[in-house]
Amino acid sequence: MLDGAAIRESGWDVAKGASPADPVSAILMQDHLINTYVLDLDTQSATDWIVTMPTKPFYVVAGAAGTASAVPPFASTFAQGGAPDYFGLAPTTLAYSDFDSGDTQLYDRDGGFPVGMFDWGPNPPPALIELRWTANVLTFNNTNLFASVAGADVGAMLPDGWLRLAPYPHHDAAIHKLVSTDTPAATYYGLPMIGFMANSYVNGTLAGGTGPVLSSYGATSPHKGHVRVE
After folding, report:
1. Residue 182 has what DSSP assignment?
2. Is pLDDT at 92 greater than 60 in this prediction?
3. Quick check: 90 and 149 in contact, CB under 8 A?
4. Nearest CA to 43 among 164, 195, 206, 208?
5. Reduced to 3 states, what is the DSSP secondary structure of residue 22?
6. How close are the terminal C-alpha atoms of the chain, in Å?
7. Strand locations in 53-171, DSSP E?
């Protein structure tokens, strides 16, 4: 894989404990995902993020909740209700320059400042976002564009902006890390995540040459990812 201007090669020796899925997971590992959301009231906008983890079934085995751990980089075994990985929100009490670049955080549409404590509205998001499945829907302000039962809600916020979605915690535990079998080993941070943002707009009924026309639009955009390998 590309690492700056150079090519990085890592070894994944099954005899040394690597999973056969590790080479593919390493290519997909993202320290965090970045994309936008649109919730304008005038256009009745709705936004969902699709976040998939294609190699998750190779690491997450079935078992009773709390009885065993999943194989890194994942955090949980599969039990009733899925196998959650947690994405924590950065504290709102810190100054902009103090935010950990690995924390999940919402920004306004200019991207210059984190959304502050008093900008969330009456329904603040949960302290931890749980993505439980191989394919997940992350919805904004319960708009649930795809009407998914495999979703998580980010809560009420400003009408437009962008989100940095990062697995938590990856700095003080073995989870959300993938370590190669090289000497010295390379550590790939995050989770093997890919996906896209989808949103819809309804501009209302417009006057047309043959009568009123309902003006509705949709758009998609792939997630941008940040790769961290040390």
Report:
1. S
2. no
3. no
4. 206
5. helix
6. 13
7. 85-88, 105-108, 128-131, 135-139, 151-153, 160-165
